[in-house]
């Protein structure tokens, strides 16, 4: 009888450990690309950004990933061009993000996380002209993005879209 109870406890303990590890494995992709240092995609382009972010005034706030997000806001008419595309997630980018989130039926918190990025990637498409990736903005499109064949890293303005660097081809 004592052995039966012990086996039950062992099975319950193993099941709890397996369940915990499964939850960690499911939860970890939310920051997979941040830990890789780049915006990365694979497979269908319409699910490339769902594991990106977060970007905000307090975290990952000055880099090429912010520049990509600012270009999306510009394409949809929430930011002007030029100096507003500076790769810095400041008050203007936060306000524009809140408006974009509200207009797209998302929680308007001003943080670009997986839900916001994931909604944005619904507007990505292959440009038939040259096979690059484009963003179908409500005001204008963003052309000339592509994914590196080997690494899956996104390239915009001649630079890999990084969480740690900025570049003149994207940032004004």
TrEMBL record:
GO molecular function terms noted in the UniProt entry: hydrolase activity
Leader peptide range in chain numbering: 1-32
Tree of life domain: Bacteria
Keywords, sorted A to Z: Hydrolase, Signal
SUPFAM superfamilies with a match to the protein in the record: PGBD-like
InterPro entries found in the cross-reference section: Peptidoglycan-bd-like, PGBD-like_sf, PGBDSf
Protein name per Swiss-Prot or TrEMBL: Peptidoglycan hydrolase-like protein with peptidoglycan-binding domain
Pfam families: PG_binding_1
Domain Peptidoglycan binding-like, first and last residues per copy: 66-117
């Amino acid at each position: 009888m004592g052995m039966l109870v012990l086996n039950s406890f062992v099975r319950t303990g193993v099941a709890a450990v397996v369940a915990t590890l499964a939850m960690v494995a499911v939860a970890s992709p939310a920051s997979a690309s941040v830990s890789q240092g780049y915006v990365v995609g694979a497979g269908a382009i319409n699910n490339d950004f769902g594991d990106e972010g977060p970007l905000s005034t307090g975290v990952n706030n000055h880099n090429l990933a912010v520049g990509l997000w600012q270009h999306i806001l510009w394409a949809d008419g929430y930011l002007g061009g030029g100096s507003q595309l500076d790769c810095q997630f400041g008050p203007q980018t936060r306000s524009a993000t809140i408006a974009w989130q509200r207009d797209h039926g998302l929680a308007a918190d001003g943080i670009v996380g997986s839900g916001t990025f994931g909604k944005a990637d619904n507007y990505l498409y292959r440009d038939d002209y040259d096979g690059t990736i484009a963003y179908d903005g409500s005001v204008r499109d963003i052309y000339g993005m592509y994914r590196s064949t080997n690494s899956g890293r996104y390239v915009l303005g001649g630079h890999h879209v990084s969480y740690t660097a900025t570049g003149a081809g994207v940032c004004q």
